[in-house]
Amino acid sequence: MKDPFKILELPRGLAISSEKIDKAYREASRRLHPDSGGEKEDFQEMAAAAELLKSPSRRLRWAIESTESAWDGRGRVPTSVMDLFSPVAEVIQKVDQFELERGNSKSVLGRAVLDARVPELKRELEDVLQSVSDEEAGLLEVFEEFDRGGWLEFAEQMGEVARGLSFLEKWQREIRAATGKLFQALLGGL
Amino acid sequence: MSEVIVGIDLGTTQSAVGVMDSGFPILLADESGSVLTPSVVWYGGDGKVEVGQKALRRAGVDRVFASVKSLMGRRYDELDVLQKKAVSEQVTFSTASGEKSPEEISAEILKELKAIASKRLEIEVVKAVVTVPAYFNDAQRAATKRAGELAGLEVVRIVSEPTAAALSYGLDRLKESARVVVFDLGGGTFDVSMLEMREGVFEVVATAGDTHLGGDDFDELLLRMAAKRLSIEWEGFDGLERARWHAEARRVKHELSREDEVVFRIPFSGECVISRGDFEREMSPFLDRVEGCCRRALVDAAMEVSELQAVVMVGGSSRIPVVKERVKAVFEKEPDLSQHPDEAIARGAAIQAGVLAGTVREVLLLDVTPLSLGIETMGGLMNVLIPRNTTIPCKAGEMFTNAADGQKSMKVRVLQGERELAADNWELGAFEVEFQTERKGQARVGVEFRIDSDGILSVLARDIASGQDTVIDVGSAAVDVAEARVEKMVSESVEFAFEDMGARVFEEARLKADELLPAVEVALGQLGGHLESEERQVIEKARDAVVSAIASGSGPRLKAAVEELDGATEALAAMLVDLASGALFSDS
To answer: Domain containing A85: what range?
Structure first.
């Protein structure tokens, strides 16, 4: 893939705020969107580049690949990330179990008894989402160090962080989806 | 002078057409000075057609066609009972001028709007931006485009209705940066969209909705409430009777937004009083569905309600007080009612028309696809290729290979929707990928799925060896309606065959009892203190009856006892639900 930083006219660097990426995306849209006279292919390429940069794990992965270091999706993951695996899996399983039981439920009272557990589940989801976000913020702090030291030098460490981040992003999506399921169950679904 | 493109809101109950005039969107009025045209069509014999007010005046006397939008691009097997009564199995209406599809009827409305615009602008209008509900799928969008073509219009863009309303809201706020929600509850459809507006760029972040929820449902609700009170069987109504009752229901609905009580009156049938409180209570299942969509959009956008600067309400049903109250409760903010509920969408369509004509340069719209697009994988699951809320235009590729030596082709089903199982999603269609004869795993064909700026799909296959692209016709999903119906009838008859068998009755009731008995203990433990001793006795007695019915082994007896217990614990269940939702929606 072409250099996403270049496509969005951003300085090459891992430490970048999502606001900066959004701003660059809007400005590039002005230039490239078909409705403002741009070419569809260029716009789509730019939108895909912005999507890549917005995900810290994909951004990091692209940086590793740009140094022509080997990237391996399987490998060491920071232990602080691994420690989060059980609490995340546990609460998501609880929500899945809740959804299953509620779907099979045959009486109004049976559903009501189940629904009484929803606030507790929602709190647990919020707590675990917070832990995941905190962990992500912690990992992002090393991005500046990677930028200063040069990407090639840190390739191995970067791989470990990238794998950790991609777990965290996946979990965030799953936790959000689980939260959505809770509301749908209570509000009669879509 | 640049070319003229008009903006059209093709609504379920009424439509409007607008255009940019010296930098402002204005709506164009018909001969009687009205900017809103009822979406109603009347067919006389020998090709006579009337649209709008004129057609509406014939309602109750002769058959007219209204609210056809909800049938655009839909298949017979997806329609509800009432809709099925109104159309043939090919989803056409029989009119005095022959069988007409929803597209053809909509085309008459578009022709009328085209005529109004051409007359006002004193030129022949040929290009238009047409709005559709954000939650319309590919087939519904394509049907809308076809309706435009039938009316002699080139539809240069399909725009989502809440997005159009956001343009109308944001045009005088181009310097501001804001996150806004647009809540659009119209005559037949509901959408909610979250947008970021910055320096004239309108970026849709997430959208959710329900294409079968709107004012028509509330009319139907009032009709049934009144019929029940007057002990009249509404199921037996013929077309004209239904139309009369609907018109009265609509009037009562409008009045109830101002008055506490309104008399529902049908000449020669009777009258009854309907209070706002009664209406609001019956509305709550609809409001729950509305709230469900709002919550999902918030989750999808990863936005907190505290981050929102405005909640813009449009669509005729936004006038209903209890709807406003629910919106305020969900978003914890006073709704913004600055936009005209019936006109904002057409104004927004006019603005986008101006952008495409090159007269409006400061605005850029970045819209998304509302539904995930994917293909069916082995095992009947949906494999998502383009997730919902991806900015359009967009594309995604997938590589297909032969699974067996010499395999010539494979069938690919294209799906739209959010469910895990392929069968639960909407099938857009299917196509065959052709392979060169090769050994297993050697033939390679890349398939590209493109969603254009109208939210409409096209599919290209690329032969990797030759680099040759072919456009694939996904076509209308070839579900054989007759076959599907036969299958349904067969499965129903099997179910009926079992129904009288005692063993099955007992097993079903037993399953329900197994769930209810422990639930009763839990609920009594939690809420027993709030119950009157009499209520408690009734529940306990019903519980004991279930226990002894299980011992008796009699299916009918257990079924009756379980039903009794179910009824006796209704109040208990309601208390639990209140407690849960109170705790859920009050914090955070």
So the answer is: 79-186
